[in-house]
Amino acid sequence: MTELTRRLVDFIQENLVQDGDDITVDETTPLLTSGLLDSLRTARLLNFLRKDVGVPVPAAKLESENFQDVTTIVALVRELESV
């Protein structure tokens, strides 16, 4: 697991999983179909990516296929870093 993957998994587990939810996040946990990402949580995730990871996500990349799981988010971040 890369450092970015670990940071994202930790952030999602600690900040987006609600108390009482019996979900353990890993890099393949489905974030959309599990209900972990709604509009508010997505905004928190985008803020984390911008402030803590240093990669702002442009509106054109706010598509569901880029946020299926941590693996797809890492791929998006890598793509944006190379631009």
From TrEMBL:
Q: Which InterPro entries match?
A: ACP-like_sf, PP-bd_ACP
Sequence ranges assigned to domain Carrier in this UniProt record = 1-81
| Pfam families from the UniProt entry | PP-binding
Name of the featured protein: Carrier domain-containing protein
Source organism: Acrocarpospora phusangensis
Q: What is the lineage of its organism?
A: Bacteria, Bacillati, Actinomycetota, Actinomycetes, Streptosporangiales
